[in-house]
Amino acid sequence: MTSYEIVRRALEFDTPERIPIRFGALGIDDTFGVGLQAAAGWQASQPYEDEWGVVWHPAPEGVTNMGQPKGHNLKSLDRLDEVKWPDPHDDNRFAAIEGQLANAGEKYVMVGCGFTFFERMHYLYGMPELFVALYENPKGVHALAERVVAFPIGIAQEIGKRFRGRVHGFAMTDDWGTQEAAFTSLPMFREFFKPYYRRLFDAIHDAGMHAWMHSCGHVNDIVGEWIDCGLDLVNLQQPTNLGIEEMGERYRGRICFESLCDIQMTLPWKDADAIRAEAKQLIEHWATPQGGFVLSDYGDGAAIGVPIEKKRIMLEAFIELAAPGVEVPAQ
Fold first, then answer.
1. Is 202 exposed, middle or buried (0-12, 13-18, 19+ CB in 10 A)?
2. 285 close to 245: Cβ distance less than 8 angstroms
3. Could you tell me which residues are beta bridge partners of residue 258?
4. Ramachandran sector of residue 315 (left: φ over 0; alpha: ψ -120 to 50; beta: rest)
5. Is residue 182 within 8 Å of 216, Cβ to Cβ?
6. Distance CA 49, CA 58 (A)
7. What kind and span of H or E run contains 256?
8. In CATH, which of 3.30.465.10, 3.40.50.2300, 2.60.200.40, 3.20.20.210 is domain 3-322?
9. Structural domain boundaries of the chain?
10. Pairwise CA distance, residues 66 & 146, whole Å
11. Which residues touch 195 (CB under 8 Å, ≥6 apart)?
């Protein structure tokens, strides 16, 4: 089986010969990423400004993370027309993809849209302000949601028109929880966010791609809502926070999980035996014989205190359990 076929079968519960692996740090990756670019002629008007006009505060020196969005350029939900909304249909966004595809080989090709919907809403307006508006200005929140979701929907449509059948997965991020709960109640999620996720996932499927989403936090209930909307894969990197057995009981076989040993509680602090035991738990409770699990590395191990040796232990454990025949490249 090609890498493409292994990933496709895992997502569609079509019995891959092994679990797919996305572990570029150790030289194994069944996927290949292509990248979007900024619109033609776009330039930041100030340091650390993104294309949406949000200004980021960089991390302190010596800290490796993306920083924080502190310059929220949307001052009122009644002034949406004052924002210069990025154009998802700009030709320059897609100009590099054709050349990148030449190197994809037989891998499963992915494109990413980054901070996609809920995160982008509060980056623009501010998280406390958005939560207050859910109560005080629901009409304005819906208007903002329409503007924001139009961008990833437009990107998906363009990928479908330009590269149908050659780009297979559409990846996005939306962190949706604290350590203890989702950011909103389920009724509020269903009113303000669920319809837009459904439209987005439908657009991704219409373009011939699978929908992949990363989310941090205790999103146990929200995963069920995404399944209702058609999400194909959910990337969860805190399995012990969620409860490995609980999530397996609720969602095993209903959605493909992309995960690894817990990046907060296991990989930074625990020993090789605990890492191997958690890998076994994840395969037993989240994977099925028909598919439904992708092993994915956390890209920045240094930021969370995980040496490459621990990553190797984890990778070898998963290979022994669910990826026979895969060899880990020598150091």
1. middle
2. yes
3. 235, 294
4. alpha
5. no
6. 11
7. strand 256-259
8. 3.20.20.210
9. 3-322
10. 26
11. none
By the 8 A CB rule, do 232 and 11 touch? Answer: yes
Q: How many residues does the chain have?
A: 331
Which tokens sit at 118? 């809920």
d(CA 322, CA 331): 22
State if pTM tops 0.90: yes
CB atoms within 10 A of CB 271: 11
Beta strands 28-29; 169-173: pairing state: unpaired
Contact between 30 and 16 under an 8 Å Cβ cutoff? The reply is no
**What 8-state DSSP symbol labels residue 278?**
H
Tokens describing residue 296:
């994915």
Write the pLDDT tens digit of every residue in 26-78. 999 999 999 999 999 999 999 999 999 999 998 887 777 788 999 999 999 99
Give the tens place of pLDDT for each residue, 140-158: 999 999 999 999 999 999 9
3-state secondary structure of 212: strand
- Residue 51, token pair as written in the block: 């294309």
Question: DSSP letters along 20-68, please?
Answer: -EEEGGGTEESEEEE---PPTT---SSTTB-TTSPEEEPPPTT--S--E
DSSP character at residue 328: P
